[in-house]
Design a protein that fits this description.
mainly alpha, 0% strand, 11 helices, single chain
């Protein structure tokens, strides 16, 4: 199979089952032709919707139904990521082979995340497609003028923010005694580090020598999209160290504010002991094996 054929399959197939088809390990040679699809094909039950559905508040995650709805939001993000990395494989056919293989690895990991979320939300009585699916990631394709701008938006920003979100939700789920869902979040956190690293390598490789990373990153994103999208409810700078960002970028991202900054209830974060101490899956596995 050619890489472009696999990417087209993920984008043009309507069923969720098709979008979860894992990649092969061997790829045929192909011609370099750029294809930019405006949107993916989807079955009726998983179509995009303009209806706004709020994610349950952290303090309401004591209820299993709200945990299911929260995972539904996350699952939607995973499906969009699968599709958009497939989109990038078609849009940027001249990308280095190593970059393409990195994107394929990311797709496979996102597929695993989606399956983990769906299995767990089903346990809570929620089916994928039960609530409207937004398309916030897909709304950004007008920004994807280059491989670097794609990576700045999807990897450094959206996936970067998920470094924070996965930690926050892992801690909240543990607070309410749901260690199984917390473990899923930590599995995703560990993979997300790899995803952000892949995007960071692409951006760093093309960065002009006379620009720092923060300045170059800002040049790759377009207002109204801002660096705020690269942070979660609680900014955890050590996660960015794990992903390989330099100290200057980490500091400037932490200090960045726009008109939407401060809308999060920080008091609720304190209740759940959302601090800068990171949960790591390998540590928790070691503790479990000793007990």
């Amino acid at each position: 199979m050619k890489i472009s054929e696999y990417a087209k399959h993920l984008l043009r197939s309507e069923s969720l089952e098709d979008k979860l088809m894992p990649p092969t390990n061997v790829w045929e040679e192909e011609e370099s032709i750029s294809i930019r699809l405006e949107k993916p094909s989807r079955s009726k039950s998983i179509q995009f919707s303009d209806k706004k559905i709020k994610i349950p508040r952290l303090e309401h995650l004591n209820l299993a139904s709200n945990r299911g709805l929260t995972l539904h939001h996350f699952a939607n993000h995973e499906l969009m990521a699968i599709e958009l990395f497939a989109w990038a494989l078609l849009a940027f056919p001249d990308a280095p082979k190593s970059t393409k293989i990195g994107f394929i690895k990311t797709i496979e990991e996102e597929q695993n995340h989606l399956k983990l979320y769906i299995d767990r939300m089903n346990h809570f009585g929620i089916q994928f497609g039960d609530i409207p699916l937004n398309y916030i990631f897909w709304k950004q394709i007008g920004q994807f003028h280059s491989l670097e701008s794609f990576s700045a938006v999807l990897s450094l920003s959206f996936e970067g923010a998920n470094l924070d979100y996965s930690q926050v939700y892992a801690k909240v789920f543990r607070y309410f005694g749901d260690h199984q869902t917390a473990d899923i979040m930590l599995t995703i956190f560990e993979d997300e580090i790899k995803h952000v690293k892949r995007g960071l390598r692409i951006v760093t490789k093309s960065k002009p020598d006379d620009q720092d990373l923060w300045t170059y990153y800002q040049s790759l994103i377009q207002f109204p999209f801002t660096p705020r999208r690269a942070k979660g409810y609680s900014y955890l700078p050590d996660t960015r160290k794990l992903a390989g960002f330099d100290a200057d970028f980490i500091s400037k991202l932490g200090l960045y504010e726009d008109e939407y900054t401060g809308r999060v209830n920080q008091e609720s974060l304190k209740k759940f002991q959302i601090n800068e101490v990171l949960l790591r899956k390998n540590r928790l596995d070691s503790i479990a094996n000793l007990s």
